[in-house]
Write a structure and sequence with these properties.
The complex is a heterooctamer, with 2 copies of chain A (about 375 residues), 2 copies of chain B (about 80 residues), 2 copies of chain C (about 180 residues) and 2 copies of chain D (about 290 residues). Chain A has 13 helices and 16 strands. Chain A is α/β, with parallel strands linked by helices. In chain B, a hairpin with a 2-residue loop joins strand 2 and strand 3. Classes of the chains: A alpha/beta (about 375), B alpha+beta (about 80), C alpha/beta (about 180), D alpha/beta (about 290). At the D-E interface, strand 5 of D face helix 2 of E. The structure holds thiamine diphosphate (2 copies), iron/sulfur cluster (6 copies) and magnesium ion (MG) (2 copies).
C-alpha cells in the first residue's frame, strides 16, 4: 500500500516484513530512527524478534554473526564510525559466509567528526566481501531489504550485504513509499534455512583457520560467491517484479542515456537530483544522461561498459575520497576500468562530502568543468577557507 | 575434496594428525602397580588413555609423551622411557 | 513544484509540522516530501524544516533555497536568522506573532501574521504552535486540504490530543480563510 | 550429573605436550556435556584445535575473532531463545581475550544478562603469539613484552581481579578453579551452565612453554600456585564468597622457583625485596578469601 | 654499520634511533618480534621511551594519538586483525593530522583466520589518509622509518604513515642490513616540534566536529597534505642520500624497464623474487622488467605512467583482493588509471594470498598467462579444492 | 584549594537551557583548575561545546572518538611523564561512552594504572543521538531503544554498577556526586586529580530533554534522586566506602513522577508492582551504603 | 580565514554564539531580596551570571532563560518573565 | 646460490640454528638469508627453517624447495616428513642419530650421520643438538668458517653457555673433518 513515511520507518517496516529472528544494533546518527522504530515494534509485540541492546557496534555485528551461525535470520544497521568500528567483524562475517543483512545510513567519517551524509563509510569497506547496494529513494531502500535477504541466503551466494542509503537525505525524509503486505513478502521471501549451523545434535566447527594450503581458495570462493550474487539478484529482481510490479532486474539503471554524449555516473539519492538536472539540461539542448549504479559490490562492469558505450565524456559524482589516489574517487577507478577505452574521458568529482548540499546547479557545474577538461578534482569547495 | 563453506568442518579429522610421532619419551604402564584410580585418564591432555579390558591403556598413536600421567600416577605405575623408533 | 521552509526553535515541533504537511499533502493526492535541515541543534536553538509539493514524483534531494512558502514559528527568530532568504515573488510568509508589527518582507511576498501562541494556549493549554500554524498554512496556501490535515493530525496525536490539535488547526484555518 | 567418561575433545590436536589449556578444554567439556555450543577466541586453544579441516571439537564450536567470543555467544543465546532451543552456550577464551581485548564485549554481555557461561583458561599471558604480557600476568613474571632487564623485574602490575569485576557486573555465579583439581573444574562448570544468567569461571591453566617448566609438571605447578596462596579456588555466589579451599600455605618461592618466568628473582642473585612483594600478594589473597587453616 | 639481523629487529633498531617518546603497541603475529625487542630495549634502559602495554590495538593507536597531541613523537606497529580493529582510529588520526608512524607487518585478514602474509590489511585502509610505503627488504624497512618521521612531521604534511613490509617473509628473515649510528640519524631527523599541541599554558581544542560548512574543506586539506608528502619524501629522500648514501628520491623503482615490452608491477618483498625471475627471463630472451611501487599512498601516478610508457603489456602482482571488483586487485585499478591508455593491456593477478608461497616459476607463469590474454584473475589456485 | 570563581567553560555553548551536563562541565573544571588537559568522548557534551571553530573550553581539550577517551588520556599521561610535565589529565565522558562502548579502553587504562581521572557525566542514556538506552539507564526508564510499550515497561535491566566495577580494577579513589550538590563535585574532582593513579567520578547530571522535565528543575530532580535513595553520593577509597551522605528517604515515586521517562508507571494506570521494584532498588542502595538516618 | 589544522581552535569563539537569542523567558533579579549567596552564579549552566559591582548580574547575551537560577535562588530574588523582543 | 633446509621439532632450536648459520656466513663474507617455515607449530611438532648463501645480495623470497643441504635434527622425523624432498644431486644431508643405520637418501646425496645428542648431552648436559649440528654443517659444507661460527655462538650465548656451545660445535666439526 502506498503510504507516506520517513525513510527510516520504511526501512523498519521492510525489516519487520522480513521477520528477522534476531536484531542487534547500536544507535548512531542518522541510523537511529530505524532501530528506535524496531524497538517500538518489539515493545508493542508487533514484531517477534529478539532485540539485543548491545554496548557497541563491535558486539552488534558479532552477535548477529553468532545468531546467524545458530540458524537465525538476523538484522543490523549502522553508519559511519559504527561501521568502521566493526570493520574487523565485517571481513569476518563475509569469510564465515553468514547471510547477515545490514542497513547503512551513509554518513561521513571523522576526523573531523561529521554526522552528515556522504558515502565514505560503506565505500571504505569495499574489500570486505559484503554486497553493497545503494538506494535512490525510500522505495528502493524498502524493496532492497526483501531482495537482500533473498540474495544473501541463496545457497550459491551465502554472503552478507549492505543496503546503503544516504543518511538524513533519505533516512529522515518523509515521502510516499509502497510497503507490501506480509503475505506477499512471505511468499517472496521464505524462512531462512541455513546450510551450516551450530547445533548440538549435529556438531560442527565453524570459523577454523586456514593455512597457506587453503586460505587462498577460501578467498576465491568468496569472490566467486560475490559474482554469483549478481546472478541471484537478477533472478530475485525479476521474481520481485512478478510479485510486486517493480523491476530490479538490473544492477544499474539508465536514465536518458541511449542517445547521450555525456553521462553522469552516481550512487544513491543524488541520482534523483541528477535526473532533474538532466531533464533541465536536455531542455537546454544538452544530450546528457545518468547511469545509476545500484550494485557497487558486485561491481557490474559489463553492464556499465555496455550502458556507456559510445559516450565520450563521463563524470562520476563521488561522495567519497580515497586520500592519496590520483583519481580521488573510488567509483571512478572502477568505471574507468570497466569502460577500458582511453578514447573515453572519465572524470571523477568529489562532491557533497560531510553533508555539503548538492543542488542541480552543482550538477550543471560539474558538466561545465568536464566540458572544460577539468576533472578528478573536488567540486564545490569554499575557496575562502583554503 | 572441495572446501567446506566458511572454513568449517565436522568432528573427526583431528585424529588424522598422529601426534604420537612427536613423542620422545614413552609412558610405560605397569599394571601390577596400577590401582585403577583413573587419574591418568582424567588428566592426559590428549585424552588418549582409554579403559580397554579394564586396563588404562595409552593410545600411542596420539600420546605425545609429555609425562604428566607418570608424574601424577599415585601408584607410580607409569614410567617414562626414551622412545625407540 | 512548490517549496516550503519552516523556521522554528528546537523543541517547537518544526520537523513534525513539516511531516504533517507532507502527510496532509499526500492525503490531498499531491506528491510531497518533507525533511529537516539536518543538524545537531538542541532545544531552543534555531532549526529549519522543508516541504516540497508536486504533481509528479519528487526526485530532487537538495535543500530548499527559493521557497514559495515560509512559516516562522517564533518571531524572535527574525532578528537572527534570514528567514525570508530566497523567497519567490508571489510567495507567502506566515509568522507567529502576538503583535501586528510590520515585518519587512521581500517584494511580492504576502505576509500573514497570526497569534498562534494565543490560539495554542487557549485550545491546547501549551504554547506549542506548530499544529496551529498548519491550519494557517492550509488556508493561506491551498496546498493541503483541511480535512486531509485533520486526518493527518488525528493519526499523529491520539485521543484528546488529536481533538484539540485539530481544533487549533481549524481555528487558525478559519481565521485566515476569514481574513482572505 | 556430568558424565565424566564422555570424551568431547579429540586427540590429534596440536598443543604442546603437557599443555594445561588442552587439559582444561577436556575437563570443561566433561562439565558441560554434549548439549553445548562453544565459542572460542583466537589463541592457543583455537590454534591447536582448529586448523582446517582438523577440528578436535565434538561439540558445535564457532571461532570468530580474538575479542568477541562473548558477543558471538550473546547472539547465539538470543537465537536459541527465539528458536526454543536450550543448549548451554559457553565461551572458552584465553586470559588475553578475556582480561584485555575482550573486555568490551564481555562487559556488554554480562550487563545484558545473557544466559551464558564464560570460561577463561588462564595461562597468564598471550601464549599463541609468543608469551606477551596480559592483564592476567602475575606481578614480576617476565614475558616478552614485560621482560626482566637491567631496569625491570618483569611485569610491574598486579594481576587484574576479573572475578570481582564480573561479580560487580551482577554475575550470579563466579568461580575460579585449576587444572590441578580436575573434578573441581567439572563440578564448577556444571554448576555454572545450570545457573541462569551470565556466569564466569577462571581456570588456572599452567603453560609449560610460556612459564618455562617441563610439560610433566603442569599439575604440580598448578598445585603449588594454590598451596602458596598465589591462586585461590573460590566461588562467588551473587557477589559473596561462598567457598574457598582452606590450605596450609607454603612460601611463594616454592612456586616461583619452578618457573623460568620468575628466574630473574633468583638468578644471578636472589631478589628478596621482590619475592617479599609477591609473598605479600599471597598474604592478601589468604586474608581476603580466608584460606589459611 | 652492516649487520645481519632479523627484519623485525632491524625495525626495532631503526625505531630506537628515531627516539620516539611514547610507544604503544599490541602484539600480533607477525609483528610481535618488533615490540618484544623494543620492550627489551626499554627494560634494559637502552631506549628511553614510555612503553604502554595496551589492552588492544584500539587503545594502542588511541594512546599514540593522545601522546602525539601532547607533543610527543610516537610509534606503533601492528598487522592484519589489529589494523582492522583500529580502522576507526586510523581515519581519526589522519583527520587530526598527527604524524604517527606505524609499522605494518603485512598479513592476511580473516575469515578464515590466517597469520600468513599478504597485503590485504594495509591495502584495505587505502582511504584512511595515511601514507603507505612498501619495503622490499630489511634495508628499506629500516630506512623507511627515518624517512617516515621526517615526512610525517613536515609542516606541509602532518599526516600519519604506515611502513608496510611482508610479514614473516621480511619480518622473520635474517639478512644483512646497514643500521646507521645515532649521531647520523639525529642529524637527519631532528626532534619533533609539534605545530598544534595540548598544553595548559596555551590551551586549544583539538578534534572539533565540522558542520557541512567546513567538513569538505578539511578533507580537501588532508588530500592536499598527502600530495605534499610525495614532495616531502623526494626531498627527504635526497637528503637521506647525502647522509647515508642510499637513494629514496623516487616513489617507484624501475628494474630493467627501459627497453622492456612487458612489465610486472608489484609492492613489497615479492619484488626481489620478481627481479630474480626477470633476470632469468631476460636470459631466455624475454624483454621483461619490473616496476616496484614504494609509495602506494600517495599513489605516484605520474611516475608510473612515465615508467610504463610504451610498454604494451603490464601484469600487476597483487597480494590483495577487492571482493566483487571486476579487476579484483586494488593496485591494478590505479595503475590502469595512471597509464590511461587502452592500447596498454593491464592485467591484475591475485597471488600469494594468506601465505601461499610465490616462486620464480609463478612469476614466469603469470607472464605466460598474460601473453595468452588471461588476466584479472587469481593465479596459483589449487584446482582440486574448488 | 580549587578557585571556584575561575570560569573555564565559556558561554555560547549549544546545550539545551538547563542542561545538567553543561553545568557539570563548569563545576568539574572548577574542581581541577586550569592546569588540566581534558579528553572528551563523542556525545552531547562534545557536540554542544565544540562545533568548529567555536570551542567553549578554556583548558586544552581533545576529542577523538566516542569510545577511546581513556586510551587517548593514557597516551597524554605517558607523554607528559616523558616530558616531565604535570598537568592533570582528565576524561569527561557520557554514560554511554563510559558504561558501554568505552569499557575496553577504560578497563585497560585502569588496569595499567595511569595517573588520570575519569569523570562520567551520567545523564543515563545516549542523549546526543536521541535518548537511547545505555548501561546507566535506570530500571524501567523508557528510552527510544527501551521504550515502554504493550509488552514492555521500559528498560528491563538494572543500572550497571560502574563504581564497584572500577573499584574492583584497583582504582584508589572512586566517587559519585550530583550536579544538585555543586560544591561536592568540586571537592571530589579536586581530590581525584590529586590522588595518584586512575580515579573515577560519576556525576549524576539530569537531562531535561532526555528525562522529560522542565530545564528549571534540573537541580530539583537531581536532589530527588538522592532523597529517594535512587542515587547515592559516596566515596570508595581503595575499594571501601569511606563516606556516603545520610538522608531521610522519600518514596521513589516522588522522583519518578517528575519525569516523562517514567510516565508509563503512572499513566494510564498506576503500576504498583513496577514502582515497588524500583523502591526495592532504592532500599538495596540504602542498605548497601548505609544512608538511612 | 583559512582552516585551523586538524579542526582545532583556540578558546574564545564560543562567545560568538549569542545564545541569549534562544530565550523565551528572562530572569529578573530583585536585588532587594538578594542575599548574595552566590547560588545562582554557581549553578547557571551557561556560567553567565557575573558578580559586577557586587551584584550578581546575568549576561543576557548568553542567558538562555532556563529558569534554573530562579528556581534555586534561596531568597526568591529571581523571577522569570516572558521575553519581549 | 646454495640453499639449506633444516628439519626439527618445535623446541629443538631449528630456527636458531638457521639464524646462527646465516650470521656465521655473514661473518664469513658470504651473503646469507635465514628464515623459518612460518607456522603455528607447538613444541614437539615438526618444523623447518631455511638458509640461503650467495656471493651477491639475495633477493629471492620464496621458500627452499631444492636444497643443497639438509640438516635433520631428529631422526624420528624421517618417517613422517619428506626430509630429503627436492635435494640436489651432490647435496649433503646431515642427520642426528644414535645409530649408523642406512637412511635411504636420494641419488647423489652425501649422507652424514652424527650422534649429536650424545655430544650435546656430554658437553651441554642437555639433549639440545642444534649448535652441535652447526659444527657438523660447517665441516661438511664449507659454507661457513669455524671461527665465524664460534663468533656467532659466542654472541648469541653469553658466558659459560657460549663456551660450551662452542665446544659442542667444535667437537662435531672436528669429528666430521676427521671423518672426511
Ligand atoms: C585484534 C587482534 N589483535 C591481536 C591478535 C593476535 N593474537 C592472537 S591470539 C593472541 C594472544 C592470545 O592470548 P590469550 O587469549 O591469553 O590466549 P593464549 O594464546 O594464551 O591461549 C593475540 C595477541 C588478533 N588475533 N587479533
Ligand atoms: C562508534 C560510534 N558509535 C556510535 C556513535 C554515535 N553516538 C555518538 S554520541 C552517542 C551517544 C552518547 O551517549 P553518552 O555517552 O551517554 O553521552 P550523551 O550524549 O548522553 O551526553 C552515540 C551513540 C559514534 N559516534 N561512534
Ligand atoms: S594413574 Fe596410575 S594407578 Fe591410576 S589408573 Fe593410571 S596408571 Fe593406574
Ligand atoms: S605421556 Fe602425556 S600424552 Fe602420553 S599418555 Fe601420558 S599424559 Fe597422555
Ligand atoms: S604454548 Fe602453552 S598454552 Fe600454548 S599449546 Fe603450548 S603449553 Fe599449551
Ligand atoms: S539533550 Fe540533555 S544532555 Fe544534551 S544538551 Fe540537552 S539537556 Fe544537555
Ligand atoms: S541565588 Fe538569589 S540570593 Fe543567591 S546570589 Fe543569586 S540572586 Fe542572590
Ligand atoms: S535563566 Fe538559566 S541561563 Fe539564564 S541566568 Fe538563569 S540559570 Fe543562567
Ligand atoms: Mg593466555
Ligand atoms: Mg548520556
Amino acid at each position: 500500500m502506498l503510504q507516506i513515511m520517513e525513510g527510516s520507518h520504511a526501512v523498519a517496516e521492510a525489516v519487520k516484513l522480513c521477520r528477522p529472528d534476531v536484531i542487534a544494533a547500536y544507535p548512531i546518527t542518522p541510523q537511529t530512527h530505524i532501530v528506535e522504530r524496531l524497538a517500538d515494534m518489539v515493545a508493542d509485540g508487533e514484531l517477534d524478534s529478539e532485540y539485543i541492546c548491545v554496548e557497541s557496534e563491535f558486539s552488534a555485528l558479532s552477535a548477529c554473526l553468532g545468531a546467524s551461525a545458530a540458524g537465525s535470520r538476523v538484522y543490523s544497521a549502522t553508519s559511519s564510525q559504527g561501521l568502521l568500528l566493526m570493520a574487523e567483524v565485517c571481513f569476518n562475517v563475509a569469510g564465515m559466509r553468514q547471510p547477515v543483512v545490514m542497513s547503512i545510513a551513509n554518513r561521513a567519517v571523522g576526523a573531523p567528526l561529521s554526522i552528515w551524509n556522504d558515502q565514505q563509510d560503506s565505500i571504505s569497506l569495499r574489500d570486505a566481501g559484503w554486497f553493497q547496494w545503494y538506494a535512490e529513494d525510500a522505495q528502493e531502500i524498502s524493496d532492497f531489504h526483501f531482495l537482500a535477504y533473498k540474495v544473501a541466503e541463496d545457497n550459491n551466494v551465502l554472503l552478507p550485504g549492505f543496503i546503503c542509503f544516504d543518511g538524513f537525505i533519505l533516512s529522515h525524509t518523509y515521502e510516499p513509499v509502497d510497503i507490501p503486505d506480509q503475505e506477499s513478502v512471505s511468499a517472496f521471501l521464505p524462512p531462512y534455512h541455513p546450510v551450516i549451523q551450530l547445533d548440538a545434535t549435529d556438531p560442527m566447527t565453524m570459523g577454523m583457520y586456514a593455512t597457506p594450503d587453503y586460505y587462498m581458495e577460501f578467498r576465491y570462493e568468496i569472490d566467486k560467491a560475490m559474482t554469483q550474487s549478481a546472478i541471484a539478484l537478477r533472478k530475485a529482481g525479476s521474481e520481485f517484479k512478478e510479485h510486486f510490479g517493480r523491476d530490479y532486474g538490473e544492477l544499474i539503471e539508465e536514465y536518458r542515456l541511449s542517445d547521450a554524449d555525456f553521462a553522469f555516473v552516481a550512487l544513491g539519492s543524488v541520482c534523483g537530483t541528477i535526473k532533474d538536472a538532466v531533464d533541465e539540461m536536455r531542455k537546454d539542448g544538452k544530450k546528457v544522461g545518468l547511469l545509476k549504479i545500484r550494485s557497487y559490490r558486485p561491481f557490474p562492469a559489463e553492464e556499465i561498459k555496455k550502458a556507456l558505450s559510445g559516450i565520450p565524456l563521463v563524470a562520476i559524482i563521488e561522495k567519497n575520497l580515497s586520500i592519496g589516489s590520483r583519481m580521488k574517487g573510488a567509483v571512478g577507478l572502477e568505471v574507468k576500468d570497466a569502460i577500458n577505452d582511453s578514447g573515453v574521458c572519465v572524470y571523477s568529482y568529489i562532491i557533497g562530502l560531510g553533508g555539503r548540499d548538492i543542488r542541480k546547479l552543482h550538477i550543471r557545474g560539474v558538466y561545465e568543468e568536464a566540458m572544460k577538461g577539468n576533472g578528478d578534482t573536488f567540486y564545490g569547495l569554499r575557496e575562502e577557507l583554503l | 575434496m572441495p572446501l567446506n563453506i566458511g572454513c568449517s568442518a565436522r568432528p573427526g579429522k583431528s585424529q588424522e594428525n598422529k601426534t604420537g610421532s612427536w613423542r620422545v619419551f614413552k609412558p610405560d604402564f605397569h599394571y601390577d602397580l596400577c590401582t585403577s584410580c583413573g587419574t591418568c585418564q582424567m588428566i592426559c591432555p590428549e585424552g588418549c588413555i582409554n579403559l580397554i579390558d579394564d586396563k588404562f591403556t595409552p593410545d600411542y598413536t596420539f600420546c605425545k609423551g609429555c609425562g604428566l600421567c607418570a608424574e601424577q600416577c599415585p601408584a607410580d605405575a607409569i614410567s617414562m622411557k626414551k622412545e625407540e623408533k | 513544484m512548490r517549496e516550503l521552509r519552516i523556521h522554528g526553535r528546537g523543541g517547537q515541533g518544526s520537523v513534525t509540522a513539516a511531516e504533517l504537511i507532507a502527510v496532509a499533502a499526500f492525503k490531498s493526492q499531491v506528491f510531497s516530501q518533507a525533511f529537516p535541515a539536518f543538524g545537531v541543534e538542541r532545544r531552543g536553538a534555531p532549526v529549519q524544516a522543508f516541504v516540497r509539493f508536486s504533481d509528479s514524483k519528487i526526485r530532487l534531494r537538495s535543500q530548499v533555497y527559493e521557497p514559495d512558502y515560509v512559516i516562522i514559528q517564533d518571531s524572535t527568530l527574525i532578528k537572527d536568522v534570514p528567514v525570508f532568504a530566497g523567497m519567490k515573488e508571489g510567495g507567502i510568509a506566515i509568522i507567529n506573532s502576538e503583535k501586528e508589527i510590520d515585518f519587512s518582507v521581500p517584494k511580492g511576498v504576502r505576509l500573514i501574521v497570526i497569534d498562534a501562541t494565543k490560539i495554542a494556549l487557549e485550545i491546547l493549554g501549551i504554547p506549542i504552535t506548530n499544529t496551529t500554524l498548519l491550519g494557517a498554512f492550509a488556508a493561506a496556501s491551498g496546498e493541503i486540504q483541511l480535512d486531509a490535515l485533520e486526518e493527518a493530525l488525528g493519526e499523529r496525536f491520539r485521543g484528546n490530543l488529536g481533538v484539540t490539535n485539530i481544533r487549533a488547526a481549524k481555528t487558525a484555518y478559519d481565521l485566515i480563510k476569514g481574513a482572505n | 550429573m556430568a558424565d565424566k567418561s564422555l570424551e568431547l575433545f579429540d586427540a590429534g590436536h596440536r598443543a604442546c605436550g603437557g599443555c594445561g589449556p588442552a587439559l582444561a578444554a577436556r575437563l570443561i567439556l566433561k562439565g558441560c556435556g554434549p548439549h553445548t555450543i562453544v565459542t572460542v577466541s583466537t589463541g592457543c586453544m583455537e590454534v591447536f584445535s582448529t586448523p582446517y579441516p582438523e577440528t578436535a571439537w565434538k561439540v558445535p564450536l564457532i571461532h570468530s575473532l580474538f575479542e568477541n567470543a562473548s558477543a558471538v555467544a550473546s547472539g547465539i543465546e538470543a537465537s536459541l531463545k527465539k528458536q526454543g532451543r536450550n543448549e548451554h552456550v559457553i565461551c572458552i577464551c584465553g586470559d588475553g581475550a578475556t582480561f584485555d581485548i575482550g573486555m568490551l564485549c564481555i562487559s556488554g554481555a554480562f550487563e545484558r544478562g545473557h544466559n551464558i557461561t564464560y570460561i577463561c583458561y588462564d595461562n597468564e599471558a598471550y601464549m599463541n603469539t609468543g608469551i606477551q604480557r596480559s592483564g592476567a600476568t602475575p606481578y614480576d613474571a617476565s614475558t616478552t613484552t614485560s621482560p626482566a632487564g637491567r631496569q625491570s623485574f618483569g611485569n610491574s602490575r598486579p594481576k587484574k581481579d576479573l572475578p570481582s569485576i564480573l561479580a560487580a557486573h551482577g554475575a550470579p555465579y563466579v568461580a575460579t578453579c585449576s587444572v590441578a583439581y580436575p573434578n573441581d573444574i567439572i563440578k564448577k562448570v556444571e554448576r555454572a551452565v545450570n545457573t541462569e544468567g551470565p556466569c564466569y569461571i577462571q581456570v588456572h591453566a599452567p603453560c609449560c612453554t610460556g612459564w618455562g617448566f617441563d610439560g610433566k609438571k603442569t599439575m604440580a605447578v598448578g598445585k603449588l600456585a594454590i598451596e602458596t596462596g598465589l591462586w585461590v579456588n573460590f566461588e562467588l555466589v551473587n557477589g559473596s564468597v561462598e567457598k574457598a579451599k582452606k590450605i596450609k600455605r607454603r612460601p611463594v618461592e616454592d612456586y616461583l622457583q619452578e618457573q623460568k618466568r620468575f628466574r630473574h628473582l633468583f638468578k644471578p642473585n636472589r631478589n628478596d625485596a621482590e619475592i617479599a612483594k609477591i609473598q605479600a600478594i599471597a598474604d592478601v589473597n589468604a586474608l581476603k578469601y580466608g584460606i589459611d587453616i
